[in-house]
Design brief:
With 932 residues, the chain is α+β, with helices and mostly antiparallel strands. The protein folds into seven domains: 3-142, no CATH class; 164-264, Beta-Lactamase; 280-389, Beta-Lactamase (2-Layer Sandwich), CATH 3.30.450.20; 412-515, Beta-Lactamase, CATH 3.30.450; 520-613, Helix Hairpins; 620-791, Heat Shock Protein 90, CATH 3.30.565; 795-924, Response regulator (Rossmann fold, 3-Layer(aba) Sandwich). Helix content is 52%, strand content 21%. Strand 3 (225-232) and strand 4 form a beta hairpin.
Length: 932
Amino acid sequence: MNANAFFTRFLDADRSLLALARLKRGSVGTRILIGVVGAGVALAVRAAGAAFYGEITGFMILLPGVILAALAGGRLSGATAVFTALIGGWGVVALSSGSGAGMQPGLSLVATVNFIIVGLFCAWLGASLRRTLARLDAVVSALSLSNARVDETEDRLHIISELAPVMLWMTDANGDVIHLNSDQRLFWGDLADLRAFDANAILHPDDRDRVLTVSQQANDARTGYVVEGRHRRQDGEWRVLRTEARPRLNAAGEFMGMIGVNIDVTDARAAEAALRDSETRFRLLADTAPVLIWVTDQNRQRAFVNQAYVAYFGADYETARAADWRASLHPDDVERIIAESIAGEATGEPFSLEARYRRHDGEWRWLKSFSRPRLAGKTVIGFVGVAFDVTDMREAQARLAESEVRFRTVADSAPALIWMTDEMSRIVFANKRYRRFCGIRSQKQLADAWRRLIHPDDEMVFEAAFLRAFQARDRFEALSRVNHPTLGLRWIRTEGVPRFDASGGFQGYVGASLDVTDAKQAEDDLKHINELLEVRVAEALEEKAAAEAHLMHAQRMEAVGRLTGGVAHDFNNLLTVVIGALDIILRSNDPAKTKKLGEAALAAARRGESLTHQLLAFSRRQALRPEALDLNGLIREGEPLLRRAVGEAVDFKVKLKRGGARVKVDPAQFEAALLNLVVNARDALGDVTGGKGARITIQTMNCAIEAGQIAELAPGDYVCVTVSDNGSGMSAEVIDRVFEPFFTTKPVGKGTGLGLSQVYGFARQSGGGVHVVSTVGRGSEVRLYLPPLLAEDLPSPVAASNAGERASTRGGRMLLVEDDPSVAAVALDLLESFGLEVQLAESGPDALEALRNARFDIMLTDIVMPGGMSGIDLARQAAQDWPEMRIALTSGYVGDDVDQALAGTPWPFLRKPYSTEQLRSIVDGRAALPAE
């Protein structure tokens, strides 16, 4: 027999013994029978070995029978087996050895006693083993049942965990995840190995440290915890989970880990945030509303009031909320309002109240309140109320009612037919006079009463006129005839205006009709009179027109006469010097005298040039050459000359603005204007007593001109140059005419009257203006306003570089385009003296022909020329065809149109009359470009 077979049989013997031990003991007889059977089996084994034992008792072989009997039947069966086996054993011994003759008597007793003791012990041991096995079976059965119940509980818990509508998880004592239910796995993803679970990967970075710290502290302290944080769902979306965990303890109270639940509260938190936001918006809206708002609970107590409510009662929030609103009611309204309030709340429907309440300042105000129930399902849990202050509205309604009474009283007492229509042009009101005139006795007759009276020939015209005005919502006027039953044919003038409500909505017309029969008759009579007067009026108008034409002609002739007289006076003086000097030069051979008279003639010619420039400046037809400059520098340079002009007896002061006064003007014209102002100021000082205390001040400053402050100036910032004196001053009449040409208050021969005209023309042409402030006997102040220099007006380095390049050109061939022979002869002589080869052309076409036939380095052309082509047109054509040639322009007078064209040209300009040096500057390329 191999080991496996033996072990198998051994296990089967164990099962047999266990089967014996599990036998029911039954009755006493049954247990005695089991003992007898056990002993019998043992005796059979002893009898079978009789030959082996010989004379030895061999009672020990009987003990297994005793043990088996005790194991099967208990102690009674074991004892029965002991005594039965002892008796039977001695019988077997006797049979096998013949009455036991071979055994000594003492040994027989020992064997007997020994067997009884050992047998009873074995019986007790077998019975105890039976009881022990029975207990073990009970324990095993209980354990099996408990295990079955545990398995069933675990199965139920697993099913519950999987079916629970929340996310369940479980950790061990070390905090490692050992279980996730289906919802949790669905949320985080189905983790194949829970040991690889990484909390850092599923927690939001902003919540990670907080959540892990709370869970770790709870795990260390073996306590539960609650925490919220954002977890990343397997689709990548962050969701807010509320985690609630409790510790797991075994029967011995040992910590086994944590079990917890995760609840997705994202939507709940969003709803709570929305609710808080809604609550905030409600409170903001309620506190912003200009009406009283409150919310009551089921006990009719104020749960909320807005700021308008608090302000009305003039207390803090809690005091106003807890205050009894009934205490503020007017005594005359208390009983009525309380009854209406109780009745309104009892209906569970919206209701309104209107009563007087005392405001915090003691004034009684009418409030109209509207209450609406708050429902939880169908149960009223309170009311929401709003109250409006309608005191002003009630007063307005009272005034409106009073106004309506006054209107009807006035309308009924007015001596006119007053009527009113609705938006559909139906008459809705007519005063008593209208009703009497039209014979209206009932409201039904009001609609067509007028139509029944109007003359048939005027009915269509009247209705068409009213329809046009009605559609346009415009004023309506009409003159029509009516056939009155007692008064006969009457002329009625009707006027109506549209009515609009406060929001601009059209409401109809209100109008009045007057009986103008007498006035119409008077008008017809006047027509006849007017027809007779028309002829006489026409004749009178013709005579008046002729007289006005003669007067205007006389005024123009007077102005021209004054202008020509003044110009003739000054030019006659200048020509006297020029003609006389030239006459003497022609007859004299004295070089010194010739030089002196030539200088005098040249000076007179310069004065004539200055006079021409003054006239052009006044008429704004002079081509100024503005430059970017600082007026302070010009004034400082000319200060010595100005001091000599005013004389030593006058206190001459100059106050210049710090930082400079930069403008863009013609420096020569500004110096001339300033000199004119200073000279006029000096002449005004003649009446200052003894010349003592005479004072002239020049000042520069920045001025801000507002709209309408000075009529001819646009609002803005200006550089202001003022010349003030403490002389005789000017009257208002003189100030009004001070800028007129040839107007002067000086004696004959003391002034031309062009000085201030020139200043005015220069200022206006430079974009500014002049303003005079003066009081008779207290001096004058002339303010010259000039626009400040802009950043774009500053000279650029590129322009200076180009000017340097132009200045580097010298000599060569020149084309002189000049139509005046005398001017051409002088210019030709001067140009040839510069070393130039000069060719003369008298018109633009001649110049173009010359340019095609020869090459020229420079062309100087007059602007105004015959032949239909101006000098500017010629210059543009030449610049396009011969771009390498330098071009310069010259003119004595150009006019507005040429001035505008000249302003945009890139070529230097030489003004006539010009000197040798000025002409040389053109040839050398040093002349200034025209200002844009």
